[in-house]
Amino acid sequence: MSEMGFEIENLLSELEDLLEESKATITGGKIKVDKESVAEIINEIRLNLPEDMRSARAIITDEQSILDKADADAAATRAAAEEEAERLCQENEIVRRAKAAATEILTQAKAQADSIVAKANNEAHTLKDAAQKWSDDLRSNTINFVDGSMTDADELLMHAVADMEKNVENIRNAREQIRRYVSAKNG
Fold it and tell me: Cα separation of 137 and 143, whole Å?
């Protein structure tokens, strides 16, 4: 596991400790957590995401500009080919060869432009899919962790309430025994 992976694992453990140390509320089986501490840990996790994830985000964000640049490059190549074809067409003796060369240049330029656009699309989609999968996995793991922690906290609270009810019943029984004893002694 990379150093970033260890750091993220440590931050998740810190988040888990914060949840375990948080005070339970009386109703609903919920716990109170320090919002600033949780936000700080989440921010640290984001800062420790692997560089590949940050690069994927940048590529996803820049996808349109990559496609626009590919289109601009293709247009510039086409324009250059058209200018060359026009120049060749103006010369009487080589008009036929100029048309053939211009057609070939345009075909190659279109193929090259199509290849650049297709490659940019494929790379952007691959990185976007990987980033989405990682994000979904992280979200799912976090939800499972929080759900498990909440279930554990609910069980602890239910046991504590049951113990308190037993103690109250024991105190009532002891009071009744003391009353009987005092009545018997006085009566």
Answer: 10
Cα 102 from Cα 89, distance rounded (Å): 9
- Look at the block and give the residue holding tokens 């590919």: 70
pTM of the model: 0.34
Q: How confident is the model at residue 16 (pLDDT cuts 50, 70, 90)?
A: confident
**What average pLDDT does the segment 122-148 reach?**
87
Coil vs helix vs strand at 62: coil
Contact 73, 113 (CB under 8 A): yes
Rg, Å, the chain Cα set:
36
Whole-angstrom distance, CA of residue 98 vs CA of residue 82: 11
Cα(37)–Cα(128) distance, rounded to whole angstroms? 30
Cβ-proximal residues to 57 (8 Å cutoff; 6+ apart), any chain: 131
Tokens read off for 58: 């940048």
